[in-house]
Write a structure and sequence with these properties.
alpha/beta; GMP Synthetase, Chain A, domain 3; Non-ribosomal Peptide Synthetase Peptidyl Carrier Protein, Chain A; 7-stranded mixed β-sheet
Length: 870
């Protein structure tokens, strides 16, 4: 349909409406299927009356409610429609106008029939301040309200989109959302018309058809909510040719905040920028949005104000400064002046001309808006306020999750707890194991109190009529509200069971085998502890700790009892992974290794939360404990375990080990910056990992090599001179010690000698196996020996990033006397720090404070530099 044809269609429609007593200000409910007819009809009706688009799939009860609110002068329905609206309109005695499409005419051509011939009091085309659209708000936090959008509002909102997306007459939009959503009519249709471009009105989103439409219509942009965008990304792999031929110039994302990682994947897929946007029905769509490149964008921000004024206000109506969290308020030509027939709501929703959005956010000094959640959606856990959007973003980063929604679950003690509804990606199935994996995934990235206690797997996410996720009331919809039961009175204490007998059979069957009673002595003892600490009896071995009224304080007491009885310290975070007696007993019996597995490596959360980029430690993490305690509290710290020896190729090379570790690191955290630290041989491994990360285009803020020297130096110095220097070093140490200390020192050196002897024997067997069998048996795949061997054969290549060498002041001469341990000339930005003590004593107070101060300063400087670049 041409613009001239559209204008003729508008004129015919207004003339017909005027002839049946419908004019400016009169409401017409439009109930049509998605497509060009709905778009053209909505625009035509709005040009001389008030258009109210309704979903033809509504039930009779929904139509009765919406039409009762609207009180339209007529209902416009497709001829031969089977919608429940027909019967409801007749029951309510509302005049029906029949929409008859013209199959021979251009797209969207139609004529109207029905009504009683009678002149209207307000004929002709609408004026700028007349109402164009009557739109029901989403109703995600309350009963839907009616927002009257004037022509001035609609046109201003459309121009906001034109400005944000840089639309021109050469652009073509692919409209894939339902026409009764403001996303479709206000953004896709009206913005295209305002720019003089074209728009393809589809029957609605379909995963397979979407890629066919890309080939058929060659659109330059489209707009869709985050949920549809995720579906597009999930199905893209099945249509590689269509994706390769796509001519998209820009993609608009809205309705809910998209994670930066997701946006990056979409931009890489379609080779076009994806711009996040924020707007409301009441603001005629966009009020804040990201600008097209090369304009700056900030990670996690929805952008800057577009055509409107935005500000942050506290609950008392006071303005907040940049950096302070409060409610987002907005005013401007695209914002409605008030809701229809709702004086009480208007009084609460508007303040001095500003619309209160109900969304919480913060503005930075540059005017970028960061949303933190809805004020009514905030989870209040024992007085601690938690934004569910933060949890959504973490869960959505897991490969098993297609869509996640965090919500409040009633709790008898804390008031509210954190729950999460999950829609799984294709190929994944819900299970207790996956539930535990998701909790562990969150625990490694969030504070413990933000980890979801209840996770529910759903086929589809509950949504409002306009497609927004119904976060409010989610617990009631899923039947979780009833789980908040009051704890029973605490029973009289009984003698505590002890695990004293070394001959006790921990797995012997005890009690009945109904799946909910204890099956062994471990479960029986745990059940006894749980019942006493929680004050509830009886408890099933499969009852959830948090559903039983458990909180962090009870958790500390319970785990202290568990440690006193079984001699194992599980840590408070284990209650998220093993929240039942059954699973805790399994953990105690099997003693599995902690951490999140990535292939043959594991990431261990030592300190999971903090605002700084995380630090990853290689090697024996317990040795680093004094150092970690001295580092800034806002620095997340993770341990990276050595790969499973069975997974490493032979011959063993440090480059291959580093590649396995880098893969595990990037699966845990796909993008930098990364900070790495290792001691001795692990310091050399950290150097090679940093080099590989930079080769992959990733940012490495720091690699700290603690008392680790360049192994290539061995080829430049005499082995005999090295042994002579070592002998002098140890003889000097021995001479300065007393009798008892000298004996201890001698015992330590003897143990070292035994260790090196075993190392020589291992290397001999390794070489024999490699030459004869061409493989290395599992018995020889010992991590310590593999690392030592691969480091001794490693030839470092230059690295241009920031590197720190920590040297122990008490060290032998020779190779170790080199001021940079052989790294000068290899590391482009090298810093050397001397720490009092020897190879191990540098981790002991007060020596460790010197090392911690230097590392903290380097990390802080790297973070400041990164922020300046951003």
């Amino acid at each position: 349909m041409t613009y001239h044809g559209l204008l003729q269609q508008v004129e015919r429609t207004v003339e017909f409406l005027n002839s049946i007593a419908i004019g400016r200000g009169d409401k017409v409910a439009v109930v049509l299927r998605n497509g060009p007819d709905a778009a053209a009809c909505c625009l035509s009706v709005a040009s001389g009356a008030v258009s109210a688009l309704l979903n033809p799939a509504y039930t009779a009860a929904e139509f009765e409610s919406y039409l009762g609110d609207l009180k339209p002068k007529a209902v416009l329905i497709e001829e031969n429609s089977k919608s429940a609206c027909v019967a409801v309109a007749q029951e309510l005695r509302m005049p029906v106008i029949w929409h008859i499409p013209d199959p021979q005419g251009p797209a969207g051509s139609f004529c109207l029939q029905g009504g009683v011939k009678q002149q209207t009091a307000r004929p002709g085309f609408a004026e700028p301040d007349d109402v164009a659209l009557m739109v029901h708000t989403s109703g995600s936090t309350s009963r839907p309200k009616m927002a009257p959008l004037s022509h001035r509002n609609v046109c201003s909102g459309a121009m906001n989109n034109v400005v944000q997306l840089g639309l021109t007459a050469q652009d073509r939009c692919l409209c894939i959302t339902n026409m009764f959503f403001t996303q479709a009519i206000l953004v896709s249709v009206f913005s295209s018309l305002a720019a003089g471009g074209s728009v393809v009105c589809t029957p609605g989103y379909d995963p397979a058809s979407f890629f066919e439409w890309l080939d058929e219509f060659h659109p330059t942009w489209y707009s869709a909510p985050t949920t549809l965008q995720r579906s597009i990304l999930a199905h893209a792999a099945r249509h590689p040719e269509s994706v390769a031929r796509a001519r998209l110039r820009v993609i608009r994302c809205s309705s809910s905040s998209a994670s930066p990682d997701f946006i990056a994947k979409m931009e890489e897929l379609f080779r076009a920028p994806m711009l996040d946007s924020y707007g409301l029905t009441e603001t005629s769509s966009t009020i804040v949005g990201e600008r097209l490149p090369p304009a700056s964008r900030k990670r996690g921000s929805v952008g800057v104000a577009v055509g409107c004024e935005i500000a942050i206000m506290d609950e008392h109506g006071a303005w907040l400064a940049p950096g302070e969290v409060g409610e987002v308020v907005v005013r401007g030509p695209s914002v409605i002046s008030g809701y229809d027939c709702a004086p009480e709501i208007n009084q609460a929703s508007f303040r001095n001309g500003w619309l209160r959005t109900g969304d919480l956010g913060v503005l930075d000094a540059d005017g970028f808006l960061f949303l933190t959640g809805r004020s009514k959606e905030i989870i209040n856990r024992g007085g601690v306020k938690i934004s569910p959007a933060e949890i959504d973003e973490i869960l959505n980063a897991h490969p098993a999750v297609a869509e996640a929604t965090a919500f409040a679950v009633p709790h008898e003690v804390l008031g509210e707890e954190v729950g999460a509804a999950i829609v799984l990606s294709d190929g994944w199935a819900g299970s207790e194991q996956l539930e535990a994996e998701l909790r562990e995934f969150c625990a490694a990235r969030l504070s413990s109190f933000k980890v979801p206690r209840r996770i529910v797997f759903l086929a589809d996410m509950p949504r409002s009529a306009t497609g927004k996720t119904l976060r409010i009331g989610m617990a009631e919809r899923l039947g979780l509200a009833a789980t908040a039961s009051k704890p029973a009175a605490k029973p009289a204490s009984k003698p505590e069971l002890k695990m004293d007998s070394p001959a006790a059979d921990l797995d012997a069957p005890v009690g009945c085998q109904d799946g909910r009673s204890p099956r062994g002595i471990v479960e029986m003892v745990l059940l006894h502890i749980w019942e006493e600490e929680l004050g509830r009896r009886p408890i099933s071995v499969r009852d959830d700790f948090f559903d039983l009224g458990g909180d962090s304080l009870l958790g500390v007491r319970l785990l202290a009892r568990v440690e006193a009885t079984f001699g194992k310290n599980l840590g408070l975070a284990s209650l998220f992974e093993v929240p039942t007696v059954e699973r805790m007993a399994s953990l105690l019996s099997e003693s599995p290794s902690e951490g999140y597995a990535f292939g043959s490596s594991k990431i261990i959360a030592i300190r999971a939360s903090g605002s700084l980029p995380p630090l990853f430690i290689l090697g024996p993490q317990p040795l680093f404990r004094p150092l970690i305690l001295k580092l800034p509290e806002n620095l997340p710290v993770f341990g990276l375990s050595f790969p499973d020896g069975a997974s490493l190729p032979t011959p063993f090379r440090l480059e291959d080990i580093a590649a396995v570790q880098v893969e595990a690191l990037r699966r845990f955290q796909p993008e930098g910056p990364y900070a790495l630290m290792g001691w001795c041989a692990d310091g050399v491994l950290a150097y090679e990992m940093a080099r590989q990360l930079r080769a992959q285009g990733q940012e490495v803020s720091l690699v700290a090599m603690i008392d680790a020297f360049n192994p290539a130096r061995w080829s430049y110095e005499s082995r005999w001179s090295w042994r002579r220097d070592r002998f002098r070093f140890h003889y000097a140490n021995f001479s300065n010690l007393g009798a008892k200390a000298a004996i201890a020192y001698s015992r330590e050196r003897f143990q070292t000698l035994r260790k090196r002897t075993r190392q020589l024997l291992w290397r001999a067997l390794y070489r024999v196996h490699l030459r004869t069998e061409r493989r290395i048996s599992l018995a020889l795949r010992l991590p310590e020996q593999i690392l030592t061997l691969s480091v001794s054969q490693y030839l470092p290549v230059p690295y241009q990033g920031c590197a720190m060498v920590v040297r122990a002041e008490s060290r032998p001469a020779g190779t170790h006397a080199d001021a940079a341990y052989g790294w000068r000339g290899l590391a482009g930005d090298l810093h050397v720090v001397d720490v009092p003590g020897n190879h191990r004593d540098i981790f002991v107070a007060p020596n460790v404070e010197v090392m911690a101060s230097a590392i903290a300063a380097a990390l802080s400087a790297a973070d400041r530099s990164r922020q300046l670049r951003v």
